[in-house]
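User: Teach me something about this protein's shape.
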Amino acid sequence: IYCDYRPAAEFHILIIPKKHYGPLQTLTQENIPMIQKMKEIGMNLLAEKTDFDSTSELLEGFHWPIVSVQHFHLHFIAPKQQMNCFKKIEFNSWSFGSVEMAIEDLENDTS
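Assistant: First, the predicted structure itself:
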């Protein structure tokens, strides 16, 4: 678990698996439990370290299909309302998706 070196908001952590994984596109259905565990860790840290509301103030997810860091990591950002216009572009819906979207993508992958 690391703090982002260019935080998008007051609380911006990265949950990174100890084992190296490439971007989401390189993962399979086997990796879904790991992704769920990563989210659980993030939710626990959010609850322990802040009083932000996870339903309205949290942005969590992964960059894809375009990634700049080739090591799989999960962003937890709160409050998302603090993000400036550049961060809102960086974390837009075209290049960033939630844990649920990632899991759905992996479940539907037939390759």
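Now, about its shape. The first helix runs from residue 32 to 49. Helices lie at 32-49, 85-90, 99-107. If you'd like, I can walk through any region in more detail.
User: That's plenty for now, thanks!
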